[in-house]
Design goal:
The chain contains 10 helices and 9 strands. By secondary structure, the chain is of the alpha/beta class.
């Protein structure tokens, strides 16, 4: 349907012969950037950790049982129970809605490598035991991938299951990363990407268009940084300002504006034109529940946005990668 860019659904169909649906899981992880020494996390983060919509029960799917046993073991067992429940719930929802037959396991919420390699192995092994899964997807930060964790992730690669790492970059502009309190620089992302590629792992890079102070030139440079890292896929988000965030305070003071549908269409078309032609486009807009969203309050839904973008690029005669330079 969307033939102006390399869409993720088309990639899955061509690779597997049919759709593969992600089951988003909250593994009970936290984030190093929310430690006290990091001043409360990224400026755009409202503390929900990107939990999948269908997994939100009063905004959390994580159980905290109490019992007089080893505290660390207790937490792991609680996480096992939560993960099992989430996977069963996710499978049920996706089967009912999409008639799905095969799935990907997606550790989506928070920083899913923010633990020891030993604990990660226990948690990953338990989750994968509820498979089979065609893809194993881990969302994380570039500063949470030491060699032991990289080795662990590599160990899950099989002929029947690919391993993807979703890596948050957001911007290649270090001044922007400092302003939003990201906690790492662009070079950290590049180093992590190189290590992941050296182990044959797939990379999907997250970027945000519309961050305060950024221009079209910044978006182009960020896309070029993604290309340089040889990222296999990309998720482009328009900036959402959530209540209770540092960005919301700046927004209320009038220090920046949130992009309209039209402005994000322009920025997205521009970014896609500089994106390497074979990079898979997994997402092009952000989706935040309206009860938490301060701005933009009026924005096209995903399907309307994508249809507008397709038509716009057809009318303009533009394609993903038509401005790409190796």
């Amino acid at each position: 349907m969307y033939n102006r860019w390399q869409s993720y659904p088309e990639y899955l169909k061509s690779k597997y012969g049919h759709p593969i649906y992600r089951i988003g899981v909250d593994g009970g992880f936290s984030c190093p950037n929310r430690e006290k020494t990091r001043h409360g996390g990224c400026a755009f983060c409202d503390g929900t950790g990107s939990v999948a919509v269908y997994q939100r029960n009063t905004e959390s799917g994580f159980f905290r049982n109490s019992g007089y046993i080893d505290e660390v073991a207790s937490r792991i067992l609680d996480r096992f129970a939560s993960i099992e429940a989430q996977i069963e719930k996710g499978k049920g929802f996706i089967k009912r809605r999409y008639k799905a037959e095969e799935f990907a396991l997606y550790f989506q919420s928070w920083t899913n490598t923010y633990d020891s390699a030993d604990n990660l192995k226990k948690i990953y092994d338990k989750a994968l035991s509820f498979g089979p899964f065609r893809e194993f997807i881990i969302s994380t930060r570039p500063d949470c991938l030491d060699d032991d964790i990289l080795d662990l992730l590599e160990s899950y690669k099989t002929d029947d299951m690919e391993v993807w790492v979703e890596l948050g970059l957001q911007s290649s502009n270090d001044e922007t990363l400092r302003r939003i309190n990201r906690g790492h620089d662009a070079a950290c992302y590049m180093e992590a990407a190189k290590k992941l590629k050296a182990r044959g792992l797939k990379i999907s890079t997250h970027v945000i268009f519309g961050l305060p102070g950024e221009t079209r030139e910044d978006y182009i440079n960020t896309i070029k940084w993604v290309n340089k890292a040889n990222s296999d896929a990309i998720k482009i988000h328009n900036l959402h300002v959530s209540g209770g965030t540092l960005l919301n305070e700046e927004y209320l003071e009038g220090l920046f504006t949130a992009a309209s549908t039209e402005r994000h269409l322009e920025n997205t078309e521009l970014g896609l034109r500089y994106l390497k032609p074979d990079v898979i486009v997994q997402r092009l807009i952000c989706e935040t529940p309206m009860h938490r969203l301060a701005a933009p309050r009026h924005f096209a839904d995903k399907y309307l946005f994508l249809s507008h973008l397709q038509r716009r690029m057809e009318d303009n005669g533009t394609m993903q990668g038509d401005l790409y330079e190796a």
